[in-house]
Amino acid sequence: MDVKLKVQGMHCTGCEANINDALVEIEGVIKVKADFKKGEVKVNFNEKKVSLDKIKEAIEEAGYKAEG
Q1: Exposed/middle/buried for 43, CB within 10 Å: 0-12, 13-18, 19+?
Q2: What's 64's DSSP letter?
Q3: CA-CA distances (angstroms) from residue 17 to 47, 49, 54, 66?
């Protein structure tokens, strides 16, 4: 499943890396592409292994606000 989430709080490529690192560690997440300029993250994941809520929770634990 592919999903695009709006993310508040990203200001630089370091923020993109923080989100990428937080999400790729989750079992079931296949691909992550954060873009601070657009304020969004695209995530491809296996919904049988991980829920969208878990992905949002990981983004928030990394210090950002996920919407969508």
Answers
A1: buried
A2: -
A3: 23, 23, 18, 15
Look up residue 19 and give its two tokens: 């989100």
Phi-psi region of 28 (alpha: psi -120 to 50; beta: other; left: phi over 0): left
Q: What is the mean pLDDT of the chain?
A: 97
Fold of 2-67: Alpha-Beta Plaits (3.30.70)
In whole angstroms, give the CA distance from residue 7 to residue 2.
16
Q: Contact 30/45 with Cβ under 8 angstroms?
A: yes
Span 7-45, pLDDT tens digits: 999 999 999 999 999 999 999 999 999 999 999 999 999
Could you read off the pLDDT of 9-19 as tens digits, one per residue?
A: 999 999 999 99
